[in-house]
Amino acid sequence: MNKKVALACSICMSRNYTTTKNPKTDSNRLEVRKYCKHCSTHTLHRETK
Questions:
Q1: Model pTM?
Q2: Higher local confidence (pLDDT), 27 or 41
Q3: Among 1, 33, 41, which Cα is nearest to 17's?
Q4: Which of the four pLDDT bands, split at 50, 70 and 90, describes residue 49?
């Protein structure tokens, strides 16, 4: 079963995106480079708790 997770910007810590992942197949935290509207640049977004 997929779990909904929030992605937060690693620079300004704002939670900009939500996505789903399967915790059985991927136990590590998700890290994706995405556009942050607060920083106005592409930054690394990490999965939050």
A1: 0.84
A2: 41
A3: 33
A4: confident
Instruction: Report how far residue 43's alpha carbon sits from residue 25's, in angstroms, rounded to the nearest whole number.
Output: 25
Residues 6+ apart with CB under 8 A from 25: none
* DSSP one-letter string for 28-49: SPPEEEEEETTTTEEEEEEE--
In the chain, helix, strand, coil percent, each to 5?
0, 55, 45
The one-letter amino acid at 40: S
- Residue 49 CB neighbour total at 10 angstroms: 6
Tokens for 14? 């704002």
Radius of gyration of the chain (CA): 11
